[in-house]
Design a protein that fits this description.
This protein is an alpha/beta fold and 258 residues long. The strands form 2 sheets. The chain has a 6-stranded mixed beta sheet, with helices on both faces. A 4-stranded antiparallel beta sheet has the order 2-1-4-5, with helices on one face. Strand 4 and strand 5 form a beta hairpin. Helix 3 runs parallel beside helix 5 and helix 5 runs parallel beside helix 6. It is globular, with a radius of gyration of 18 Å. The N and C termini lie far apart (39 Å). It comes from Streptomyces sp. R21.
Length: 258
Amino acid sequence: MSSPSVEATTTATRHAASVADAVKVYGSGDTAVRALDGVSIGFPAGRFTAIMGPSGSGKSTLMHCAAGLDTLTSGAAFIGDTALSTLDDRRLTLLRRDRIGFVFQAFNLVPTLTVAENITLPIDLAGGTGDRQWIDALVDVVGLRDRLHHRPAELSGGQQQRVAVARAFAGQPDVVFADEPTGNLDSRSGEEVLNLLGRAVRQMDRTVVMVTHDPVAAAHADEVVFLADGRLVDRMESPTADRVLDRMKAFDSKGAPS
């Protein structure tokens, strides 16, 4: 039997990442938790997609499985046309290194390295040289030209997260997954990071998939998809913070509009 695919319903759209009939169950027997319950969704290339839902809705699980950080119980996850389930551990590690970028709530910078060294760290660890012209342009996009020789302790939280964003994009990945990237930032710094992610998508033709609980953050995306109880329950194009907040309020505990 061939792996399930989302291609039939989205023949005109190229997806940077997608899942089809995704099921993820943690535990077994009476204690089993169905974190994803048959989710099929594609994340279009060159777009900024936000994933929202109540606590326990499965949004982080969806991101982790789509990014190959966790495995599905059943169904399939793809980066482009590559089915993650067909890869052994080594090839999956190489795919994550070469085709996926990550931005997390914690900045995860190496304190002994400069900003410039932190940005190119994944490329350096892989033994590559990277596209220096791309990295140079990226430094300007994230506004760190005058901070390249500073170390993380000399930067504000917002500046550190901008370094993390630059590092995620440095290898020109197919998709960058961002998990609550503004969670540790004040509102002004968070807004700067969200604007930065938006610029990377619209000015540099990148793809971003962001998990967030914040309607203001979600409003920076091109589209918001809503999960509840492990299921995809709605999606919204051209979101605003007020519309997203209203939609979140409309979901009852079962994930259906009340």
